[in-house]
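Below is a filled-in request sheet from our internal design queue. Each sheet records the structural input a requester submitted and the sequence that came back. We keep these sheets so that new team members can see what a complete request looks like end to end.

REQUESTER: design group, bay 2
PRIORITY: normal
MODE: inverse folding
CHAIN LENGTH: 445
BACKBONE (tokenized):
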């Protein structure tokens, strides 16, 4: 007898191709692997093909889930005021209210930090290079009723203020963040560009007095300073500017590539609803009027046909989407100069935001209608879904997640899931969610 130790034959590992089809399907659908080098050649080949197939099917699955409302729903409670601004940075989800900024873990719902104080913040929130930017005002050291107009730059990871920009002429609603620069139009009409460190980089002085309700947009290359009918376009590369005059007051505007699309406000039935300005040429190149469709309804003087204000505009490629104050939302094909009605809401309510390939139409809550979110696929020009959301304030589309602020709550709808019947597997406040995570009562994507 050779030895008391029995020799054991090493069992060969089960080949991935011998696994049941159902398991292979689940692996392929849920695969999210950064480094494939540690796997065998056959596994790498299988995983690569699964990843490629997943990329092809991913948008269609999200679209299908939007139609069927198949999602994981997470409710983030804990902010004791109405939520307005929404931004994302890695796994951090940031929200801003009137007096504070919160950072949440987007997967678990846990609050990472809160920045608060004697603040009065605006509704807009940006994240650039791991820094959160919000404009508003902060209580001054001078006295109990004095406030400084400020722009806050906060470290997303720690919640600490990195810089505070103060200026007596700041306006929070006329501030934007582009390409790592904070650009704002001041009350005196000047336009300032600051770095994230708070250093003033550039000052522009357009020769136009500030109107009652100015509008201000910026991109990496252009600044559009809109004052009633007068539009000043500044080329940020060469500092040259040109003035363009619209036929009526500009009520809303959006920049798409090098085009500035302006929605007008008019009581003249012969005036266009929108004008298109080529900012490279510095001139109006197109306009559009929807005859017999949009009208202005005055409570005393009655209805005036083909008049009124375009409350909101959005644009992509040759398509412009506009909402009229009478509640009608219209899609305009500039190439063919045709239009179609998308939705009809109560007057003065629709607001448009275009994110990825989806058009989100928000309607305000009235005594007879709840606030509503309508989603359209602009590539196929098909309506996907209507969702009634009480107290709807803001929406953001982020990698297959629909983030919605409604009153003091933030709701995340994860549409990347594999549900088949509209099942909601996780719902509740962070503490309930934490318990669900411990008990395995929900799905983590």
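RETURNED SEQUENCE:
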């Amino acid at each position: 007898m050779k030895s008391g130790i029995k020799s054991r034959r090493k069992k060969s590992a089960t080949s991935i191709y011998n696994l049941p089809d159902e398991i292979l399907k689940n692996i392929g659908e849920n695969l999210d692997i950064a480094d494939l080098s540690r796997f065998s050649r056959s596994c790498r080949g299988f995983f690569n093909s699964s990843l490629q197939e997943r990329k092809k099917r991913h948008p269609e699955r999200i679209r299908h889930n939007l139609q069927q409302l198949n999602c994981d729903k997470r409710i983030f409670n804990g902010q004791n005021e109405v939520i307005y601004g929404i931004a994302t940075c890695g796994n951090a989800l940031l929200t801003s209210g009137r007096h504070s900024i919160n950072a949440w873990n987007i997967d678990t719902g846990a609050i990472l930090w809160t920045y608060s104080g004697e603040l009065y913040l605006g509704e807009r929130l940006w994240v650039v290079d791991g820094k959160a930017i919000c404009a508003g005002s902060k209580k001054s050291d001078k006295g109990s009723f004095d406030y400084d107009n400020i722009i806050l730059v906060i470290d997303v990871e720690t919640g600490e203020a990195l810089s505070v920009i103060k200026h007596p002429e700041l306006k929070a609603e006329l501030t934007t963040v582009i390409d790592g620069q904070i650009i704002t139009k001041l009350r005196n009409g000047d336009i300032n560009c600051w770095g994230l460190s708070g250093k003033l980089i550039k000052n522009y002085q357009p020769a136009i007095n500030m109107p009652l309700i100015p509008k201000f947009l910026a991109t990496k290359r252009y600044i559009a300073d809109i004052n009633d009918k007068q539009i000043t376009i500044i080329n940020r590369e060469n500092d040259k500017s040109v003035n363009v005059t619209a036929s009526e007051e500009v009520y809303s505007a959006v920049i798409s590539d090098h085009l500035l699309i302006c929605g007008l406000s008019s009581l003249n039935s012969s005036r266009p609803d929108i004008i298109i300005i080529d900012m490279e040429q510095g001139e109006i190149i197109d306009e559009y009027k929807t005859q017999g469709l949009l009208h202005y309804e005055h409570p005393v003087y009655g209805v005036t046909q083909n008049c009124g204000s375009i409350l909101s505009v959005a644009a992509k490629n040759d398509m412009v989407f506009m909402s009229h104050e009478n509640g009608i939302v219209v899609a305009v094909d500039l190439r063919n100069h045709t239009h179609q009605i998308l939705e009809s809401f109560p007057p003065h309510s629709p607001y448009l935001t275009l994110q990825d390939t989806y058009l989100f139409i928000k309607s305000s809550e009235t005594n007879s209608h709840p606030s509503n979110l309508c989603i359209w696929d602009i590539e196929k020009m098909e309506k996907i879904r209507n969702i009634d959301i009480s107290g709807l304030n803001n929406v953001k589309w982020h990698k297959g997640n629909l983030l919605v602020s409604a009153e003091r709550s933030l709701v995340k709808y994860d549409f990347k899931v594999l549900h088949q019947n509209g099942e909601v597997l996780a719902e509740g406040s962070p503490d309930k969610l934490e318990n669900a995570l411990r008990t395995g009562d929900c799905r983590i994507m």
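SHEET NOTES:
- Confidence is low (pLDDT under 50) at residues 1-14, 421-445.
- The first helix runs from residue 21 to 30.
FILED BY: M.R.
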